[in-house]
Amino acid sequence: MIESLLVANRGEIARRIIRTANRLGIRTVAVHSEADAGLPFVAEADEAVCVGPANPAQSYRNAEAIIAAAKSTGAQAIHPGYGFLSENADFARTVEENGLIWVGPGADAITAMGDKINARNLMAAAGVPVAPGTTDPAADLDAAVVAAAEIGYPVMVKAAAGGGGMGMGVATDEAALRTEYDKVRSFAERMFGDGSVLIERYFPRVRHVEVQILGLADGRVVALGERECSVQRRNQKLVEESPSPAVSPELRERFLAAAVRAGEAVGYRNAGTVECLLDPATNEFFFLEMNTRLQVEHPVTELVYGVDLVEEQIRVAAGLAPTFDPDALAPRGHAIELRINAEDPKRFLPGPGVIATWTEPAGEGVRVDSGYVAGNTVTPFYDSLMAKLIVFGADRAEAIERARTAVAGFEVVGPKCNLPFFAELLEHAEFVSGDYDTGIVGRMR
Questions:
Q1: What was the pLDDT predicted at 160?
Q2: Quick check: 61 and 55 in contact, CB under 8 A?
Q3: Residues 155 and 211 in one domain
Q4: Pairing of β 77-79 and β 101-102
Q5: Does the keyword Transferase apply (predicted)?
Q6: Range 329-354 burial, b when 16+ CB lie within 10 A, else e
Q7: Whole domain around residue 144: which residue ranges?
Q8: Would you state the pLDDT for residue 170?
Q9: CATH number, position 385
């Protein structure tokens, strides 16, 4: 087992990783920016190193400073969490070149899945369904127009190097395509350093369903069920649940088999997620992308399957067998996660500030993974996520009821907060029915 672990992240996910490491008797090292010096994860680690100023490029994305921190503290391994350097193949490779253990998939798998077009082509070759789209980047606007005409409108214009819902636009006709192509391309060049653009069929009514996979140390890839992620704003997830209310046992079998094939196609090791779009009218699903890291929403899978995914990640990285029997995975109950963000509940615009009051709910089936306590400041330098409220019940109805009670008992004063949105959503007939899609938030507004 790994004896010391550096957590190359911040906030709730850093606390989450530290919590499991502490339970396993692993010494932890936190790295933090100057702006985050007073956050709980820094105090909860056995050792902490400041790696730079607030700007993420100078701290949490500062690979050289993070490697130096690992060496100076004697850390054996690095866990990147999600975001920042978690899907940076060069960083993963550098970690291992420095004699450290990388708690994540290999650099080759990260590279293979990092480019959307390459990933689509690999998945198609492996027999994973992909939506109609380009097999090569649309080199210029004229090529995009030709591709869109062949695919048929509406189309999605996507940054090939993008991810997490960033760098996408919808075009319903050629005029819109000309606008969206230039917009997405310039965004991709600015954000990802790669202006390659993919044109893909757009489905006006679709559900976002993903499968949690785990590549084991012995080479096997297993699937730990699916998560429904269709409650989104600006293509960014707000609510996740498992199992998906849209997935029948027969469809689940197809989903999980496709996800395992996806992982096997790239020799996947460690935790990852195969994201898909599900057409509820036909029950057809299509590969969207693979996230080569731990997901924000991993707790719903943990509650339904009774596993600690961070522990499993560490065990895989150490070359150890999992704590569970891969041939006897069985889900139970229902879990829902709500992302508590520092943003207003109507337009979802960020609203950082000093937390005057922070009261977390408690009770049977309630879990809170938070990054802050009263007195902390939510700064404008990072993602607006403050905490994740996760509830578990014997079935979906019980989970929703527990979520309503927990939301009512969660008090945040200071920064803006989206808790009122969740109170509204949990009473909304479309969500309660389970028959919703990615357009639900827009219809509520």
A1: 87
A2: no
A3: no
A4: parallel
A5: no
A6: bebebbbbbbbbbbbbbeebeebbee
A7: 132-201
A8: 95
A9: 3.30.470.20
> Which CATH number covers residue 197?
3.30.1490.20
Please give the Cα distance from 220 to 416 (Å, whole number). Answer: 45
- Residues 299 and 367: beta-carbon distance below 8 Å: yes
- Regions in the chain scoring below 70 on pLDDT: 164
**Residue where a domain terminates, one of 179, 201, 223:** 201
pLDDT in tens, 258-317: 999 999 999 999 999 999 999 999 999 999 999 999 999 999 999 999 999 999 999 999
pLDDT at 445: 82
Number of domains in the chain: 3
User: Do 49 and 94 share a domain, yes or no?
Assistant: yes
- 70: number of CA atoms within 13 Å, CB side? 26
Q: What confidence score (pLDDT) does residue 165 get?
A: 74
- Whether 244 and 256 have beta carbons less than 8 Å apart is answered as no
**Strand pairing category for 207-215 and 155-159:** unpaired
User: Any idea which residue has 């690999």 for tokens?
Assistant: 122
Assess whether 231 and 347 both reside in one domain: yes
Which residues are tagged catalytic?
Answer: 293
Distance separating alpha carbons of residues 40 and 21, to the nearest angstrom: 15
For residue 316, what pLDDT is reported?
98
Whole-angstrom Cα distance, residue 36 to residue 354?
A: 13
Distance CA 276, CA 291 (A): 11
Structure tokens at 403: 């979520």
3-state SS assignment for residue 268: coil
Same domain (yes/no): 410, 325: yes
Beta strands in 177-261 (DSSP E): 197-201, 207-215, 221-233, 236-242
The answer on 415 and 397 residing in a single domain is: yes
Residues 163 and 228 in one domain: no
Cα gap 164→203, rounded to integer Å: 18
User: ∠ at Cα 243 (241, 245), nearest 5°?
Assistant: 85
* Residue finishing a domain among 201, 223, 243: 201
Q: Is 353 left (phi over 0), alpha (psi -120 to 50) or beta?
A: left
Assigned domain for 121 exists: no
Are 262 and 403 contained in the same domain?
yes
DSSP state of 34: G
In a domain, 115, yes or no: no
- Shared domain for 164 and 297, answered yes or no, is no
Cβ(318)–Cβ(2) below 8 Å: yes
